[in-house]
Amino acid sequence: MTIKTIVLASASAAIVLLSTAAAFAQPGVATGAVNVRTGPGTGYAKVGALSAGEYVDVKQCQGSWCFVDRNSGTDGWVSANYLQPANAQPQPQPPANDDIPFNFGVTVGPGGPSISFGIGNGPLPAPIPVAAEVCFFKGNNFSGAQYCVSPGDSDPSLPGGWDNSISSITVDGGAQVTVCKNTWYGGSCTTISNDKSSLGSYNNAISSFQAF
User: Fold this and answer.
1) In which region does residue 47 sit, left (phi positive, over 0), alpha (psi from -120 to 50) or beta (all else)?
2) Cα–Cα distance between 206 and 203 in angstroms, integer?
3) Pick from 18, 27, 156, 210: most CB atoms within 10 A?
4) Strand ranges, E, within 71-122
């Protein structure tokens, strides 16, 4: 096989792969504001944010995270909790041999939300539970350094680097957290069960917590 033949074969293979990837993309819509990250998890850097009602193409899902292609803004990974299939007007369909059905579902149960994702006409696979987790951030809007804990974790006296330094909090998988302004769960306390991009009077004023 000549070098020219090898190059042409490689180029053809790349075109086939790109065409297949495009066929897998499915329209979705953000149900609320959510961060866009460089990888499937809160430990990856934030590169932007989806707005509620923003339409995207869902390229793939991994665990409880999906990679989305945005019409505007940086592409990246978002929590599947904030996505649902788009009820868009019918779009031109690709040729029949490239038309691959897409299944996407969200279930909310006692253990928190879970998602199902599949390709083909078969039934949805078993739901994948979203890990219960609480993450603290030093900056507003889930920015800056972060510190994540699981239900059952607690700290009666946050270390110096985090004492009076928390400015936003995310909660996933049905987790909750009670935060207090003083050590040993003293002073004013509040329980948080939803993401908080800013903490009001608790901003930079938390000294202890209990996650559950």
Assistant:
1) alpha
2) 7
3) 210
4) 76-79, 83-85, 102-109, 112-119
Check if CATH label 2.30.30.20 holds for domain 133-211.
Answer: no
Q: pLDDT of 69-104, one tens digit each?
A: 998 788 999 999 899 887 644 444 445 444 445 555
- Residue 24, number of CB atoms within 10 A of its CB: 13
Q: Please write the tens of the pLDDT for every residue from 149-206.
A: 999 999 999 988 999 999 999 999 889 999 999 999 999 999 999 999 999 999 999 9
Supply the pTM of this predicted model.
Answer: 0.44
Cα–Cα distance for residue pair 75/29, rounded to 1 Å: 14
Block residue for tokens 């948080």 = 192
CATH number for the domain whose boundaries are 25-86+99-129: 2.30.30.40
Residues 6+ apart with CB under 8 A from 132: 111, 112, 150, 151, 172, 173, 174, 175
Domain ranges (residues) in the chain: 25-86+99-129, 133-211
Tokens of 49: 């944010």
